Request: fold
Amino acid sequence: MPKTLEVPNRVVVALGGNALGDTPEEQIERANNTAKALIGLIEQGNEIIITHGNGPQVGMIQNAFAAAHDAINTPAMDLPECGAMSQGYIGYHLQQAIGREMHRRYKRWHVATVVTQIECDPDDPAFQNPTKPIGPFYTEEQAKEIMAEDPSKIFVEDSGRGWRRVVASPEPKKIVEQPSILNLLDNEFIVIACGGGGIPVVRDYTDHGVYKGVPAVIDKDLGGELLAEDCKADVLFLLTAVEHVAINFGKPNQENLTDITADEAERLADEGQFGKGSMEPKVRAAIKFARSLPGRVCIIGALDKAAETMCGLSGTRIHA
Reply:
């Protein structure tokens, strides 16, 4: 990546899984558009690490294996493996898109995807209270049959739409591949890592403490925050479909926020201003990162205005 006279900002850029579409064709198109914004950030003098969501993609992979299992008895594929597949699949498209954009701009940087494991505490209370729905919908009869065959799988009724499996969403503790990621950064690679929050793993002390995958989902914003801390980033850049974090969202008195402290953001989050399943996880991750070291800032803004947002012309900045 290019060097400037000043030390460049190290920026973790987090893309939502929905920002990359629901089909391979949509993903290629959107990755190509995203690459323009990402290369623009580098041309501003920043060093970037990219992470992304994988909700639609891992769902597609799971549904495909479930259908194939029912139709032709293809072996079932559990969640850690589906997560790994989604990391490779999304990383491949991002690598190609960034490569194309670099070629257009006569740049000769390098880009690599790291299939990333995230260590979790096996005693995390989340494992005793799985709440994250994944995979296809089943009838009540089908769900109870699966649970009878494999008691480790838990299904619940989901808003009148059918029964879905639920898994834990534990807190991320450690990025297993952190040394590899840092080594690539030190050799001027654009790195793609921690896709979908990372693949949750725990230590297996029945087998010398080696890592084993667990059927769980890491919150992608918390995974991105841990990546930013572990990579000693200056900025955590959460790209979404909207330009600003807002209070009273969707109401006549909606107010866009441009610059707030972590304390202010926490107060508003505690008041329920940001929506549990949408903006609040991003704001909580922003608060954690802003408080992790003096001078760190989290920026939340729109993907299509990434360069302007990085310059302070759009978006919401959250700092200590």
